[in-house]
Amino acid sequence: MPTVALPASAPAVVVHSAGDLRIEDVSLSAPAAHEAVVEIAYGGICGSDLHYWQHGAAGESILRAPMILGHEVVGMVVQQAADGSGPREGARVAVHPATPGPGAARYPAGRPNLSPGCTYLGSAAKFPHTEGAFSRYANLPSRMLRALPCALDLRTAAVVEPASVAWHAVARAGDVAGKTALVIGSGPIGALTVAVLKRAGAAQIVAVDMHNKPLQIATAVGADRVLRGDDTEGIAAVEADVVIESSGNHRGLTSAINGAVRGGTVVMVGLLPSGPQPVPVSLAITRELELLGSFRFNDEIDDVIAALADGSLQTGPVVTHEFPVTRGLDAFEAAKDPSVSGKVLLNFRD
């Protein structure tokens, strides 16, 4: 039984089409047997949320009907799943927003993020779309829920999902202890990558961006030096053992290749547009660089939660703004401008 009386509807952030974002009440449906009802406390605005709002699409995922946005959410269970699975009422939880694709398609064991047909909360990759969780209440499969330790407050935990993306990217590079690391693009994912690299013992971390605000945040979470994205000579002189490309554009990937030491590793976490990209692949060949893709995450979320709880992963400066959901449009306006904001949170409790 729920610990609170649930209303018939709740405020949510709904995108209708490109440029048409609304804060509106949505009807609350009865949860399935394997779903818990979660009262959402905070939601972090992701780049994909911004793309759906600004362009009506995120990459090749095209919006075909109104959709609730949001996958970076934390909150409290107010009704446990009827089948008895997952955290009980009153548990504070973070959310792993992925659902691996069904069927027997081949992908490496233990890497369900690579399963074809994998869906994500707040994604238009399929139709009907997968509704997100930017709502005061959300019905979520119990398997998505991760109970939070007492030492970890909900606001700090609001970055668990993007920090897991960063953790996965750094893990793809292998052991970074004692190495020089270069992070191209210091938005929220890039800044969180700096924090993860710092925790993992990188000897020197150099952060790159075109705006001062992201570079200030990167410095606050552990970058030893910062460079502007148009400083091609400075970037090339870094000769990094490990480069994390998180800008998501071909110029950033070019900088990543140029900034890597011969025999170095480049991890590509920034999602570039589909289609051919004008990057100096010949340089990657002659320098024997390892180019590695990094897509979402798997069980790293559990490591992130533990590291945030024990204080070994410092992410506080990454969050720069917080808005009540009633000012959701203002929140999205702030989030779209990297010159003034880092991670922007929506507060669903105010």
Q: Which properties best describe this structure?
A:
350 residues; Quinone Oxidoreductase, Chain A, domain 1; Rossmann fold; 2 domains; seven-stranded mixed beta sheet; six-stranded parallel beta sheet; 10 helices
Write the layout of secondary structure elements.
Blueprint: E1 9-17, E2 20-27, E3 35-44, H1 47-55, E4 57-58, E5 61-62, E6 67-68, E7 72-79, E8 92-95, E9 98-99, E10 119-120, E11 137-141, E12 145-147, H2 154-157, H3 160-172, E13 180-184, H4 188-199, E14 204-209, H5 212-220, E15 225-228, H6 232-238, E16 240-245, H7 250-259, E17 260-268, H8 281-286, E18 290-293, H9 300-310, E19 319-324, H10 328-335, E20 343-347
Parallel strand pairs: 13-14, 13-16, 14-15, 16-17, 17-18, 19-20
Antiparallel strand pairs: 1-2, 1-6, 3-7, 3-11, 3-20, 4-5, 7-8, 8-12, 9-10
Helix pairs in contact: 3-4, 3-9, 4-5, 6-7
Task: Give an account of the 3D structure.
25% of the residues lie in helices and 29% in strands. The protein has helices spanning 47-55, 154-157, 160-172, 188-199, 212-220, 232-238, 250-259, 281-286, 300-310, 328-335, and strands at residues 9-17, 20-27, 35-44, 57-58, 61-62, 67-68, 72-79, 92-95, 98-99, 119-120, 137-141, 145-147, 180-184, 204-209, 225-228, 240-245, 260-268, 290-293, 319-324, 343-347. The chain is globular. The two termini are 25 Å apart.
Instruction: Give the proportion of residues in helices.
Output: 25-40%
Proportion of beta-strand residues: 25-35%
Whole-number radius of gyration? 20 Å
Structure classification? alpha/beta
Could you name the CATH class of the largest domain? Alpha Beta
Anisotropy-based shape: globular
SS field, number of helical segments: 10
Number of strands: 20
Order of helices and strands: EEEHEEEEEEEEEHHEHEHEHEHEHEHEHE
Mean pLDDT, to the nearest integer, reads: 95
CATH topology label of the largest domain: Quinone Oxidoreductase, Chain A, domain 1
Architecture per CATH nomenclature, i.e. the level-2 architecture of the largest domain: Alpha-Beta Complex
End-to-end Cα distance: 25 Å
Annotated CATH homologous superfamily of the largest domain: Medium-chain alcohol dehydrogenases, catalytic domain
Q: Please mark out the parts with pLDDT under 50 across 5 or more consecutive residues, or reply none.
A: none
The total domain count is 2
Largest sheet: 7 strands, mixed
